[in-house]
Amino acid sequence: MEKKALLVDDEAPVLRVMEQLFKNHGFVPYSAISGLDALGLMTQHGFQVVFTDLRMPNMDGMHLCRLIKQFAPRTFVYAVSAFTDAFSPGEFRAAGFDGRFRKPFDNDLLIDACHMAFQNVARGMGRDAARPVERRKHPRILAEEEVRARILTCDTDPGLVGQEFECATRDVSEGGVQIWTDQGLPVGTVLQLTVVVSEQRQRFRLQGAVRWVSGVESSGRSKVGILLSIVSQDRAKWVQFVAHLTGCGTKSGEDGHAAARRGRDGGMTHGRRGLWKPGDRERRREHRVKVHSDVRVRVYNTDLNMTLTDTTFLCHGVDLSRNGIRLSSDVELPIGAELEMLVHVEEPPSVFVHRGKVRWTMRGGEPNTFSVSIELIEGGPSHLRTWSDVVERVWALQGQSNPTRR
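User: That's the sequence. What structure does it adopt?
Assistant: Structure tokens below.
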């Protein structure tokens, strides 16, 4: 694997020195003279290590780091600047930096940091890896219950398939469980779980995928986060059971399945093709404009193909509107998948970090490609008003004035 590092500085002589330094030590450096250029390269290449100056025109290093960490939280980002004293250690941590170096920098320190970052990448670690972020949307409650598990699929180690083991829960929620186990479980492993609640003499047959694995304790046990599938046999009963424990309950006249769907999907129902709203097909009413853009996509939530969760890949924008974007992708994205997107528009030059939900997916015109329609979500990192301004600029550049609604 190439060890690609992104170097960001608005002074060309500094970039040339850093490029040669990193090449001499076996790295593959890419250079950007501004934060905007850096985000464009980040969209195309998905760097895992970034070194950036702090004081740059248009977008400073602090803002750049925040945007990178919003989209790719496990990327290692280091500040290299003559003005590191202008910010407190707390400000660097809040922005997401993994370290800082003062100019003129020590070559050995920079290279040692880069080597260490790639070693952590190889071990599957990122910033705060010892404290994995669990994105369960439901209330959790500490509960130690017996669990009997069987490994259904494991892409990274097929030899584990069929193995059975016993463990215990640490806490539970409607959408997931944390377990303690001495069984090695790679991220993405799909499990069949039987949770035994001895006090109430109940058993729940569930299915889920490993989202993350924390470090091994002295006892040899690891803490494992599991996202439960909506197709689990006893999902409805599980939702009611956990709701009773947490005191949330379900709405009057609503069964467990409806409560689960309400909690996960904001009122959406599940059809044969995935997630949809009744009578709400993909009808983008806003005028669309064709545009060439690179889009780095990260899947952060999907129930229909959980092995895609936390995967990152490059797509290409086909057309844009005020409230959506259509992509050409080599990856088949399930309907309802929730995404974070780093969108790089070439003209006018602009970069956005957006969140969206897959509305439909169909076969593309080229072999092994898919056309994917994304509805943008309000309240994402980039405000949709600013996005609308850029879409209107694209219309104007292409001579499409006064766009009308379809």
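The domain at 4-122 is CATH 3.40.50.2300 (Rossmann fold).
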